[in-house]
Amino acid sequence: VMASMAHLQEEKLRLQEKLAAWENHELSHSLQLQSQVETLKAKLLEQAQEISRLRSELGGTDAEKHRDLLAAENERLRQEMKACQGEVQELRRQQQAAPCRDCTHLQENAGLQERLSQLQREAEETRAKLAELDLEVQQKTNRLAEVELRLKDSLAERAEEEERLSRRLRDSQETIASLKSQPQQIKYIIKTVEVESAKAKQALCESQSRNQYLQEQVGMQRQVLKEMEQQLQSSQKTAAQLRAQIMMYEAELERAHGQMLEEMQAMEEEKNHAIEEAFSRAQVEMKAVHENLAGVRTNLLTLQPALRTLTHDYNSLKRQVRDFPLLLQETLRSARAEIGHAIEEVHSTNRELLRKYRRGVQLRKKCHNELVRLKGNIRVFGRVRPITKEDGEGPEASNAVSFDADDDAVLHLLHKGKQVSFELDKVFPPQASQEEVFQEVQALVTSCIDGYNVCIFAYGQTGAGKTYTMEGTAANPGINQRALQLLFSEVRGKAADWDYAISVSAAEIYNEALRDLLGKEPQEKLEIKLCPDGSGQLYVPGLTEFRVQSVEDINKVFEFGHVNRATECTNLNEHSSRSHALLIVTVRGLDRSTGLRTTGKLNLVDLAGSERVGRSGAEGSRLREAQHINKSLSALGDVIYALRSRQGHVPFRNSKLTYLLQDSLSGDSKTLMMVQVSPAEKNTSETLCSLKFAERVRSVELGPVSRKAELASWPSQEQLEVTEGLLVPFLFLLVPGNCRGHVSPSPAQLSGRAASIRRKLQTSG
């Protein structure tokens, strides 16, 4: 019955859950329609803005065709929006008038309600049957109690009857014994007497039956007597055995008592012996003390003349001290003057040296940065994460990384008992904050506004902190969000002269498949293609691009992309990134005074961590992910080796990762690698491999970086006066026929063309 009740409760809960699910489905359907309407409105607004922008920027036949296409698209979107609004209104009217009369969910709900009422009726019937059974069990329990009372009474009566019979048996035995002891004086005379009385016959039968009953009782008593005698014999045997054991225990006790007395006597002797030895040693030590005391007395006698001499010297020194303050004041006065003069000279010298040192440091940094810029070296920063509880305890979790106190670019690793040193551009210790890390890279981020391509990617083993450095947390953001905040700040600062547009795209490479993290279908695979304009740049057709205008837009984009990214738990990291994540920020600028247009691209890459399958415990799909990750990182190593050795062919197309990073690694971008390492002893092999790879990357020279800028128009005479270094590249872009595969003109030719174009522009006003 209880199991049936539990089943009924479960059935009721299941029906309630189905009803709640149906209601949630209806609610989500209406919300989805509303979101579609809002999306169509947003698309309509964007198309209208695009039309207005194209009208203002473009002209001629192509602009009109594009305008017509956009107008058709706008009309189509309006029709779709009207249709969706009509569907929403129709659904609302249906819900208000007769909500889903023939809906399958309502029919199922009615059936479930009927089933629920039937089950409740069955439950009530079952409860009634259960009450009847309880009443019947109570009645039977009362009857059983009465039977037990009767049984107890019968047992008591039987015991009294047995006691009475035993007394009568004892009396009979005594009578028989007394009769046997009396001498036989009666002679037996056997006569046949005919008894005609019925009472006499009945008495005779009763006496015979009673005699037979007494004989049976006598036999039973004899049997009981024999059993008692056997029990008495066994008890006597047990008592004899117990007496033997008691005697044995007493003997053992006497023997232990004797041993204890012997041990106490031996301990007493040892104590007396130790006391005698201590007394003899004390006598010897006392004798030595007396001898030392005699020597001290002798020394005191010899020290008395020395004391007199010291007293005389003390008196003379006392007289000198009395005259010392005057001499000391004169000496201090002269010493202060000399020291003050020396301090002034030292201060002036120090100020001059400090000024020269600071100027030298600034010049050295400037020269170094200029040299790195001209060579196009990939800058490499290292960051060491702190020891965490996931590293465990014991020797394997000890710190194996140390730093140089005088040089913040040197790092030491203790691997297999040997110390290995590495030199990078900058090393951040575990206590370095996210703000300190970003201060070192913000110069690269701001150059994106000036039209340069910038790439920052994090490299290291799984669990080394790459995602934390690039993305961070909500309370402590990483490079990605701080970079966009800095871009917004710089854009606001230049808003008086420049118009900027910032757009964001996010993608990931999962199992050698490029996926759009901001698209409607994140699982759809994308391809990497060359730009059709002949510039040699790469682009991804179909990649979603959002225009962001505030920090709130950034947070929404990051949240949406983070939800779609593939992360799983392994033995080495609870939230291990199973894909390479790329955040692409495009900054387009227009100088309103000169018409100069710039396009800068900032690529922020969070690489998946290299891992050993044996340590990470990857199986099934995790194993396949780890194999693709290690393969792509190996392809990145091959590309770095080819660039370092200046080979003619660089295998960029061996992996989607290297193919997508081709623009950042082929000399047309300012590139920074942030290598993340773990300080734990158990991870020294992976740390050594990461730091060696970082040194190889640091030695790669990509060549000077070019700025992506074009001159749209020259509206005034003042705007024509530009520097020679800026005008010549722009004029080269304006000259027809200059494209890839043609011979570059000489500087003299460029200067001549610049002068001729300047004259034409001056004459045309």
TrEMBL record:
Similarity section: Belongs to the TRAFAC class myosin-kinesin ATPase superfamily. Kinesin family.
Sequence positions that bind ATP: 460-467
Record-linked Gene3D superfamilies: Kinesin motor domain
Pfam families linked: Kinesin
Keyword flag ATP-binding: yes
Protein name per Swiss-Prot or TrEMBL: Kinesin-like protein
Membrane topology: Peripheral membrane protein
Record flagged with keyword Heme: no
InterPro entries the UniProt entry points to: Kinesin-like_fam, Kinesin_motor_CS, Kinesin_motor_dom, Kinesin_motor_dom_sf, P-loop_NTPase
Organism listed in the record: Leptosomus discolor
GO biological process, one term: microtubule-based movement
Molecular-function annotations in GO: ATP binding; microtubule binding; microtubule motor activity
Record function comment: Minus-end microtubule-dependent motor protein. Involved in apically targeted transport. Required for zonula adherens maintenance.
Subcellular location: Cell junction, Adherens junction; Cytoplasm, Cytoskeleton, Microtubule organizing center, Centrosome; Cytoplasmic vesicle membrane
Keywords (A to Z) from UniProt: ATP-binding, Cell junction, Coiled coil, Cytoplasm, Cytoplasmic vesicle, Cytoskeleton, Membrane, Microtubule, Motor protein, Nucleotide-binding, Phosphoprotein
Coiled-coil intervals: 5-182, 225-277
Annotated region described as Disordered, given as residue ranges: 743-765
Residue span(s) of domain Kinesin motor: 377-700
Ranges of biased composition (kind: Basic residues): 756-765
Matches recorded under PROSITE patterns: KINESIN_MOTOR_1 (PS00411), KINESIN_MOTOR_2 (PS50067)
A single GO cellular-component term on record: microtubule
